[in-house]
Amino acid sequence: MSFDPAAFRHQVLAVLDGHARAFDVPTERHAVLRGQIAGADDIHLRRTFPGHITTSAIVLDGEGRQTLLIRHRSLGRWLQPGGHYEAPEELAVSALREAVEETGLSTLAVDPWHEISGLPIDIDSHLIPASPERDEPEHWHHDIRYVVRAEAGESLRPDFAEVEGAAWHDLTALGEIAPCVLRNLRQAGLIGG
User: Fold this and answer.
1) Which residues of the chain have pLDDT under 50?
2) Quick one: CA dihedral 45, 49, 53, 56, positive or negative?
3) Which residues does the UniProt record annotate as the domain Nudix hydrolase (predicted)?
4) What is the pLDDT of residue 193?
């Protein structure tokens, strides 16, 4: 399958614009990413600086009462599963792949809301510390986030080469690590309250 970086940038810009309209996000919130798109940066490559695309999964249980978080190995924090985008994947498929890899759950599925809306639940650009051992300067992860649903009863099998652990948490944990996600989940009607 061939991959067209210009078409990908156009797709990401359309996703940014649609998300901004749906969730009332000011365009300056994604100024760095928008600048990279305008500058024709290869945002699909993890060696593109000052930033590149990542995807992550907001994994919810069937009732939408709990979220599955992983303990990030290098950052030492509980976060949603995610990682670097790999071309030519679709963005939602990339988020799903990362969730399956990091949690070991094989029955995960992207929430149908995404196909209906054509939008991610959140887009967050955040700085990642420099990593001299990887020869990476401080840089931006432009994280495009999707809701993924888990079926009841499957046991967690985290990939300890990737993460330090995986555990279910109350949804309030999202308020601490990704408050916009929690707000957007409510606005989209994907969780109660």
Assistant:
1) none
2) positive
3) 50-193
4) 63
Residue numbers of the domain that contains 140? 5-187
Report how many domains make up the chain: 1
Residue 56 token pair = 């992550």
| Alpha helices for the chain (secondary structure H) | 5-23, 31-38, 91-103, 112-117, 172-177, 179-187
Q: Which residue in the block uniquely carries the two structure tokens 């939008």? A: 119
The answer as to whether 41 is a domain residue is: yes
DSSP three-state, residue 142: strand
10 Å Cβ neighbour count for 163? 19
The pLDDT, as a whole number, for residue 159 is 87
**Residue 172 has which token pair?**
């309030």
The CATH number for 17's domain is 3.90.79.10
- C-alpha 106/C-alpha 99 separation (Å) is 9
Rg (CA), the chain: 16
Q: How far is it, in rounded angstroms, from Cα 184 to Cα 20?
A: 11
One-letter amino acid of 13? L
Query: Tell me: the pLDDT tens digits for 66-105?
Result: 999 999 887 789 999 999 999 999 999 999 999 999 999 9
CB of 163 within 8 A of CB of 71? yes
Cα–Cα distance, 191 to 159 (Å, whole number):
28
Q: Look at strands 82-84 and 122-128 and give their pairing.
A: unpaired
